[in-house]
Amino acid sequence: MVTMNGWSDARESSVTRIVVGDDANGATVRDGDVARAFVWLLEQLHERVEKVAVVNGWRSRAFNTQVGGAAGSNHISGTAVDVNGARHPFELHQPRGTPYVSGFSAAQERAVRDVLRDAGGLFVWGLDFPRGRRDAMHFELARGTTLADVRAFVGRVTEQKSGPVPEEDDMPTVDEIARAVWGYKNRELERVDTYALLRRTNANAQAAAKGVVDVKLLAEAIARALPAGAMTKAQVNRVARVAAKDVLRQA
Ligand SMILES: [Zn+2]
Question: ipTM of this model?
């Protein structure tokens, strides 16, 4: 089946978790270049509009129905995200007759439009949905966007960001970064690997405080403990957060 923008339903195996801004848990979206495009979008919103604190992405059809998402919502294909949803409501979920407020100031709305313009029409904003269904938290791939369009866009913004190109093949993959994070040993960490440290931290926290662990702080600690060099701090941080969350879920 396909969702409203023409992309096919995504399975759990074809989505990937992205972690941007202050959102320690991250959100899942369609993998590959779609995920890279959404990372760009969220980073731009975080820097230019407001701090990104909570992102929601992919939903199965069943879960979409359960949470009252639109039938055929692009969340089902992993090509939509909701940003800071508590602040930017979906009009349909508001009490009838309530005037709609986006939760963004006029200046912020302009800044969002600047970001969307920079993306060259790749994304559509839910605030532009028809009256009655406006959804200011929501951003999705525009209808008719192809994978080739997404790939071209990602190529363009990646080049802008990194300047004269490191060959794509030389960039560390997420897996390589994660392996480096887990493999690193450090005297201050009593020569345990990071994975074991996380497990122990989680066990202690669960015993002491019903499992409340600050994944963001944990990730920052890992990032600090890593040697400077091969990876940027942001890369380490992002992977550490994802990995920390996985470990905590398994524990
Ligand atoms: Zn949405």
Answer: 1.00
